[in-house]
Amino acid sequence: MEKKSFFNKKKLKYGGTSIVFTCIIIAAVIVFNVLFTKVADNNAWIIDMTSSQLFTISDATHEVLKDVDEEIDIIFCQPLDTLSSNSAQNLIYQCALEYAREFDNVKIRELDILEKPQEAKKFESSSTSKLKTTHVIVASHNDPTRNRVFTYESFFAVSESTQEVAAFDGELRFTTAILQLLSDKPIAYFSINHGEATGSEAARPDLWTLFETAGYEVKTIDLSKEDFDAEAQVLVISDPQTDFIGYNPNSPDAVNEIAKIDKFLDNLGNLMVFVDPSTPELPELEGLLEEWGIRLEKGVIKDTTEGYDRDGLLLSADYPTDTVGSGLHSELRKYNTVPKTFVNYARPITVLWDVDGSSMTDSVSKRDASAVLTASSTATAYSTDNETTLELNGTLNLMTISRELQYINDQPHYSYVLVTGSTDFALDDYLHSKSYANSEILYSAMRFMGKETVPTNINHKEFTNESLTITTKAANNWTLFISVVVPSIVLCIGLVIQIRRRHL
Fold first, then answer.
1. Which residues contact 346 (CB under 8 A, 6 or more apart)?
2. Choosing a second label site near 307 at 20 to 30 A (CA), which of 60, 164, 244, 395?
């Protein structure tokens, strides 16, 4: 009987073929994964399944940048291949890549400042503003001197109460930076030397940062020594503790800060004032505000029925309609669920012109004042001196706005005075949450005051939940599919192949 060769046996033949075929499939899958990962990394292919859409550019950004054709460079001050080593800087990098993918005129570059210190100097505005590896530059490609420099920290919002990172501001930061490069930067001044809350140069208040984000060049001004720049658009007086210098009849030529503010407003400047129940009496400043139809009352507003804390000091503001001030939240009121604006520890503000809300200042100018935010009907104003109830008629105002209309060359022009009865209104906890509308109210005020490039509807991307937004049921179903269904399919295919082999 002739012996069959060992290598001619059917089992070995088909078994060997299966092993080779399996090895080829596994190798192909590995190669495909490596190539696909490489291509995905190079082309920034990302499916954003995060609840706050961290990596997605909103329609608002597409709208404001759709007509921009100037070439823009987003420059990282360290090699790009090192950015993925840290989750925070990688998040900024991925956001920048999304801009490069969505807008043909935006390019990503690296500038290794340790290797090329001379090239880095053209982005340094002064001898003291040295670039660091943790800086990101947004610059005009054709004119690098037009640039904005940001630290990694500036792309994130920190909770005032917990001091933890609360939100990602990448889209807001990149979009406003690009807009700033395309237009001249108006100046927003913060007054100083009256005990104001302007912070140190290393720790500016949240309101300061909000103006920078909106495209302003923000500076301090000591009105007892300095005059307004011609490019100044807004003066902010935040929590003053001493009064401003007014007219002195015994020394008519002495410095008059109130006169400077008055002239600034006459020249179409704008004023924002933030006070609270603890702010002392300021006769000169209060006298100026009364000329604009706004009076600061000595008291504190409490709402123990609808307030959001035990003492009734944290208030959810009502939005009045059909007034000049209602324009600051007209877009917010269009939402199906209207976001809340919170005002904490507020003093009442009275609009003096209670007939039609307006007053003629001269033959060509007219001022009108109205509420922007009001307390609910269950709120009560108490005296800060002895906790007795204040006899104030009508609704209690939390924020008011007054405007003056002037006709110049037959064209209407406005200047505005915004007064808020709470210094907490612009704290970080209220500005950096999509649940609150405080920042949107202030951005709207800036638009009223003439800064057209303030971005609209670009939200902070909150780190409320970094997990994929799928339900527990869906997660269990996927687990079942991967761990049971897929292996079962493979097993069935294997059984079919095995049965077919036995019948060959």
1. 276, 277, 300, 301, 313, 315, 375, 398, 421, 422
2. 164
Number of H helices, E strands in the chain: 12, 21
pTM assigned to the model:
0.63
Buried b (16+ CB within 10 A) or exposed e, 332-371: beeeeeeebbbbbbbbbbbbebeeebbbeeeeeeebbbbb
- 257-266 helix and 283-291 helix, angle to the nearest 10 degrees: 20
Count of Cβ atoms closer than 10 Å to residue 387 Cβ: 10
Q: 500 versus 240: which is more confidently predicted? A: 240
The answer to whether 208 and 198 are in contact (CB under 8 A) is yes
Interval 423-452: pLDDT, tens? 999 888 888 776 788 988 998 898 888 754
For residues 436 and 342, is the Cβ–Cβ distance under 8 A?
Answer: yes
Locate 308 and state its tokens. 């959001």
Same domain for 316 and 224: yes
| CA nearest neighbour of 75 among 143, 140, 128 | 140
* DSSP bridge pairs for 270: 234
Residues of the domain holding 365: 197-452
Residue 275 lies inside a defined structural domain of this protein: yes
Residues near 179 by Cβ (< 8 Å), separated by ≥ 6?
64, 65, 215, 453, 455
- Over residues 197-204, the mean pLDDT reads 74
